[in-house]
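Below: protein 1.
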Amino acid sequence: MFAGAGTGKTRVITYRIANMIRHGIKPEKHRRHDLHEQGRAGNARTLDKLVAREDSKKVFLGTFHSFCCRVLRKDIKVLGFGSNFTIADDSDQAGVMKQAIIEAGF
């Protein structure tokens, strides 16, 4: 969907999901991705007002990061890795790089 800021994109998508749930499409069949946690939380609150709570909880509302993490945890065994991994944030990555530089003697 392409539209400018403030044109109602989020509202349209959230209301469309609620309408499909009301018309019998199972909530777990829906995925709603946001760039930021704030957007995800707002969509969850809106959906809670539009459909039954037990249905809104079954819809995947998440950030792109959380969706990718979920897919990795589910399917990473195919690549030969365990699902008990941690995703490093910027601070963790900097610490690992500093330690590697020290250990390499640079």
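Below: protein 2.
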Amino acid sequence: MTTRVAAIDCGTNSIRLLIADIRATADNPERVPGALVRPARRAPLADVRREMRIVRLGEGVGQDRTAVRAALDRHHDALREYAE
């Protein structure tokens, strides 16, 4: 059994997308490995898509503690592209 999973990591400087397939293990074909139930096990991942965009979300935040509109726009654009 293979399960497809995805994760988006939104950082201060970049946004990353990972789409991967997780294969069930022979010792437990019903449970997808890597769940919190068995934190010591590593899931056998097969990357389907991996991307990173520089969005500089934290641009200018240090000055007045608010996000710059252009940085939010870059962030939203990247999320829209990932959704496609």
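The longest helix spans residues 69-83.
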